[in-house]
Amino acid sequence: MDATLKLWVVIFVVGLLNYLSRLSFIAVFARRRMPPLLGRALKYVPAAMLTALTLPMILGDPAAGNPMAFNPRLAAAAIAGAVAFFTRSSLWTIGTGMAALWLLQVVS
Amino acid sequence: MRRLLASTDFRAGFVEMLPACIGLVPFGLVCGVGASAAGASWLAALGMSAVIFSGAAQILAGQMLAGGAPIAVIVLTCFVLGLRFLMYSAAMAPYLKALPARWQQALAFLLTDQAFAAAIRRFNASDDPRGGAQHFLGSGMALYLCWQLTNMIGFFAGNVIPAAWSLEFAVPLCFVALVAPLLREAPTVLAAVVAGVAVIALGGLPMKLNLIVAGVIGIVAGTLADIARERWTRR
Q1: Residue A11's pLDDT is what?
Q2: Distance of alpha carbon B123 from its chain centroid, rounded?
Q3: How confident is the model at residue B57 (pLDDT cuts 50, 70, 90)?
Q4: CB contact (8 A) between residue B23 and residue A12
Q5: Which residues of A fall within a CB distance of 8 Å from B223?
Q6: What confidence tier does B208 reach under pLDDT thresholds 50, 70, 90?
Q7: What is the pLDDT of residues B19-48, one digit of tens each?
Q8: Taking CA atoms, which of A69, B51, B80, B157 is between 20 and 30 Å from A41?
């Protein structure tokens, strides 16, 4: 398939599915109670999916370099994680994480 | 419309979201850069940010498109990633029940990770549904405008940013900011740890299938731990 067409199909299908997910219980299933098991499972979607998405970004390509070597990104992300846990502020988390990475890159 | 823009709740929501918007600037820039790297035109890049309006899905779709994954795999992975909106939607529903359908449809469109966090705080603080909805609309619109703007700047000017700044690192940091505060209960921690171990262990799978498989394994682990914990405390 043509690459431009493929991109637009992805935009509209993903956009539509996202919108339907956002609308689901607000409007479509407004009169229905969420099945208890589904409600329980959905509670763990952010932690599981976002971790699966994020960890490879932090660790980088496993083929490049020694996996046991000091990784400034992992250290900076751990510091940012502690800041996020205690402050719950995205601005502080991103600010501290970026500053930590810059410092660690200069030092190491 | 003018009355809405003048309402104090709408303005308060808009202004209160601005610090979070500043935090999202690097993320928006990186999304714009990612769209250009995936070969999108400026219009398609704007389509990604304006129609999908989810940084996580945009980054992922861009990477998978650039990697040549088939549409079905891209759509399925983004759908599972977006299942969290189902939970946000269910959590918001009781507060938005009394609103007209058009308000519900508009607010649902603006329901993102950041807007959800702000709206839940606000609805918990006061039980005035109309004021809360206007507040939500204000914060959602601040995010939406900031997102389109930063995505476009990233698309056109992303290559000007020096590589030494490691701006792309702001993307995982945005997700760290979302996930770390959740890690206060054992089943949630387990879901995150299991998903993290699985995504690395399954790194050999093609088309980033490790992501969706690891995510589902993590969700199952968290759910089972939740059920086990309930049985344990009931005894």
Answers
A1: 96
A2: 20
A3: very high
A4: no
A5: 37, 40-41, 44
A6: confident
A7: 889 988 989 999 999 899 888 999 999 999
A8: B51
Residue A52 lies in a domain: yes
CA atoms within 13 A of residue B37's CA, in its CB half-sphere: 20
Domain that holds residue A63: 45-107
Q: Could you tell me if A50 and A92 lie in one domain?
A: yes
Same-domain status, A70 and A103: yes
Nearest to A26 among B92, B200, B220 (CB): B92
The letter for the amino acid at B141 is M
Cβ–Cβ of A55/B199 closer than 8 Å? yes
Sign of the torsion formed by the C-alpha atoms of B95, B101, B106 and B108: positive
CA angle, A69 as apex, A65 and A75 as ends, to 5°? Answer: 115
Partner-chain residue, chosen from B26, B79, B178, that has the shortest CB–CB distance to A46: B178
Question: Which residues in A57-96 are b (16+ Cβ under 10 Å) and which e?
Answer: bbbeeeeeeeeeeebbbebbbebbbebbbeeebbbbbbbb
Report d(CA B107, CA B102) in Å as an integer: 9
Identify the pLDDT of residue B87.
86
Yes or no, beta carbons of A46 and B182 under 8 Å apart? yes
Burial class (CB in 10 A: 0-12, 13-18, 19+), B132: buried
Q: How high is the ipTM of this complex?
A: 0.90
State pTM to two decimals: 0.87
Q: What is the mean pLDDT of chain A?
A: 89
A71, A28: one domain: no
